[in-house]
Design a protein that fits this description.
18 helices; ten-stranded mixed β-sheet; alpha+beta; 621 residues; 23 strands; eight-stranded mixed β-sheet
Length: 621
């Protein structure tokens, strides 16, 4: 009996395919490194160009081995698979070029090592896309969306407090709590999935407005991220087929901005804020994206028994009544310690470390940077989330005993920041501007910046008026800490135990150090008359809270601006806003290295923000 010498394919199980993919990837890495070395060290090509060109060699090598031994590809469609595989590899490598540059030029890592790190880091993502899309099994089993072919669900219905009703041809996981078997009334928003009218490849992002519709199409046309919105009524949304396989992107990048402006037309606002019920009081918590609202909510629920309304977005009516908008919580790397006791398998908890890093603040900032250099950033985001879904969990999955609150009247607005410990009451104008800025901060990802004016359709002032009325009904405070433990003070603030306007609260930590904000804007002169108050820390008990009068009155800063001409004052305001944005970027970068910002930077950020807010208040007074 003859013995076959043909190499047997790797078992078709997912684990077997992954091991095979790793083995082929290892050989491809050798080919890539060899080509990279020849191009850079032999031919003297610039390392970034060599980084991109060497991919073509390893792509061809890997494809042949994957076809033959791992995925057992059929002859039919082979060239199409090669095209998609090459496209995937090149998109990821172009996207990785800024990371490659950062590692080599920013951190001084040798270019050979940097090349190896970048390629190795993308292995998991590439396998997921290859296994689920390029070489997916059409004969049976689950498809890329996790649905058995032939039994695919084709429609989903959501009723958000009777305010917004949505009928969708793609699932919207963030609205899972509002899913209903069927809508009793006509939907306010219909989401369809179709590539019709989106065209093919193009050099740049296309944004067009015609017949009351705005269309946003990225470089891959109908094969990538594309959406069409009826801006006249906000009643119809069309998304490309790619987004059905990446429903988180479909919701976050397309549906939620539409919901925001639709609820405004109905007399509500969708605020970027967390909301808790603490000892019977409604507390709204706002902050810049990725500051720590989710961690604060989880700790407050777990340690203090607070009721959960929302951790990211909340619907509020003009009378200050908040309605729950309980999207699944996104668990970042620094949130994991807050859910140590959550009923979660060890493997899933370990996977959260990877998911949390990929979908972290740093990952999104890299994505935004890539979007600024004419690349299909929303398409790339959709592919990433298809391969590595964001770590999202409902609050009662993390804390089973969590109490869910559907609606409540708001009493307090708490602005949380990281930096030197300060507790300061905010006037209505400052609180209004902070809540406005934080809401806009949640909508920086494409396509919103390109279609914002069309989508809002003249309702900006209406939204601001509702927000101003709400803020006017609330007691507002700024709570700044260096250690993310804002939740410890929430019960006191919920009860209304705050300090009068013009007083800073300074904490003496366990080491005896006094955390003091000396920004100096917004308080009474008192008896200090501008002098720095000396503190005798030796006499202060650990954990004691000391209230200090600040050195300048609100009128002092405003009077300085009043002495300027309107043109000069406007230029000062613009310069302060620009400086604040730059300082915030520095603060965000430093925060990647440590949970605690550098005091000097946080002090500068606070100083510039207070000056800017004083100018805004003076300019609108």
């Amino acid at each position: 009996m003859a013995t076959s010498t043909e190499t047997q394919p790797i078992p078709s199980s997912r684990r077997g395919r992954f091991l095979g993919f790793l083995a082929v990837g290892a050989t491809g890495l050798v080919i890539n490194q060899l080509a990279f070395w020849v191009l850079t060290d032999v031919f003297g090509l610039f390392y970034l160009w060599a980084f991109l060109l060497s991919t073509q060699f390893s792509t061809a090598w890997n494809f042949v081995l994957l076809e033959r031994y791992v995925f057992q590809g059929r002859r039919e469609g082979r060239w199409a698979r090669l095209g998609w595989y090459a496209l995937m590899n090149n998109i990821w490598n172009v996207a990785s070029a800024p990371v490659m540059y950062l590692i080599t030029s920013g951190f001084g890592v040798a270019h050979l090592w940097a090349n190896w790190l970048v390629i190795t880091g993308m292995t998991l993502v590439r396998f997921a896309i290859s296994n689920r899309l390029i070489w997916r099994d059409h004969s049976g089993g689950l498809d890329a969306a996790g649905v058995v072919p032939g039994r695919r669900q084709t429609s989903w219905s959501y009723d958000v407090h009777g305010i917004v009703r949505i009928a969708s041809e793609t699932p919207l996981p963030e609205l899972e709590r509002f899913e209903v078997p069927a809508l009793l009334d006509r939907p306010d928003i219909e989401v369809s999935v179709s590539n019709r009218g989106f065209g093919g490849l193009r050099r740049r992002v296309s944004v067009t407005e015609e017949d009351g519709e705005v269309t946003y199409i990225e470089h891959l046309g109908r094969f990538g991220f594309a959406a069409k919105i009826d801006v006249a009524t906000l009643s119809r949304i069309q998304v490309s087929k790619l987004l059905r396989r990446s429903p988180h992107v479909a919701y976050t990048n397309v549906v939620e901005p539409v919901v925001r402006w639709l609820v405004v037309r109905k007399g509500y606002i969708l605020a970027h804020a967390a909301c808790l019920q603490i000892d019977g009081h409604g507390v709204l918590i706002t902050a810049r994206t990725d500051t720590g609202k989710t961690t604060t909510c989880l700790k407050s629920i777990k340690e203090q028994g607070s009721g959960f309304v929302s951790d990211d977005m909340v619907i509020i009516d003009p009378e200050g009544r908040a309605l729950s908008y309980p999207k699944p919580l996104t668990i970042s790397s620094h949130t994991l310690h807050a859910v140590k006791g959550a009923p979660m398998p060890a493997m899933q908890r370990a996977a959260l470390q990877i998911q949390g890093r990929i979908h972290s603040k740093f990952g999104r900032s890299v994505g935004m940077a890539i979007g600024n250099i004419n690349l299909p950033i929303a398409t790339m985001s959709a592919l990433v989330q298809m391969a590595v879904p964001p770590p999202k969990f409902h609050v009662d999955r993390l804390i089973p005993e969590a109490g869910l609150v559907s609606s409540l009247d708001l009493d307090r607005l708490v602005v949380i920041e990281r930096g030197d410990a300060v507790l300061r009451e905010l006037d209505e104008e400052a609180a209004f501007e902070i809540l406005s800025e934080n809401t806009e901060d949640a909508y920086g990802f494409p396509p919103y910046p390109r279609i914002e004016s069309t989508l809002s359709d003249g309702h900006v002032e209406e939204e601001r008026a509702i927000r101003r009325k709400i803020v006017g009904r609330l007691e507002s405070v700024l709570l700044r800490t260096p250690d993310r433990n804002w939740y410890e003070r929430l019960p006191q603030l919920a009860a209304g135990i705050a300090v009068p306007f013009g007083v800073d609260v300074v904490r003496v930590d366990e080491g005896g150090d006094v955390m003091l904000d000396l920004t100096g804007v917004g308080a009474d002169d008192g008896d200090a008359e501008g002098e720095v108050i000396a503190l005798d820390t030796a006499s202060s008990e650990r954990g004691e809270v000391i209230a200090l009068d600040e050195r300048l009155t609100p009128e002092t800063a405003a009077s300085r601006f009043a002495q300027l001409s309107p043109k000069d004052a406007e230029e000062v305001e613009d310069a302060l806003s620009d400086a604040l944005a730059l300082l915030q970027k520095v603060s965000d970068i430093l925060d990647q290295q440590s949970d605690r910002e550098a005091p000097a930077v946080s002090g500068l950020v606070a100083s510039v923000r207070l000056l800017r807010d004083a100018r805004i208040t003076q300019g609108k007074g």
